[in-house]
Amino acid sequence: MNSANYAYNKDELLTMEHTILSLMRYQIVFPTRLDFANYYATLLSLSPRQHHLLDFLVGISLVDFNLNYLPASQVVAAAIHVCLQVIVLCLNWSLPV
Known about the structure:
By secondary structure, the chain is mostly helical.
């Protein structure tokens, strides 16, 4: 209420909230790491190889409970960074002669 300079009282805010939730049929979905991974992969036009590596990294990130305290978008952004670095290192890697 403070951010609206007290333009609305508690009952008005609750009524607005109820109206919005009713219009949405109470179907509120929080994006998961996989949702962000698919969105970013499309946005960055990742190759299938990069997308598979990204899915793997996002999947194993679910095992580390310390990452659950971070926003899903941030974890996926880090996974994309690792994915792109690994792919570049693999392309530049050559066997010793």
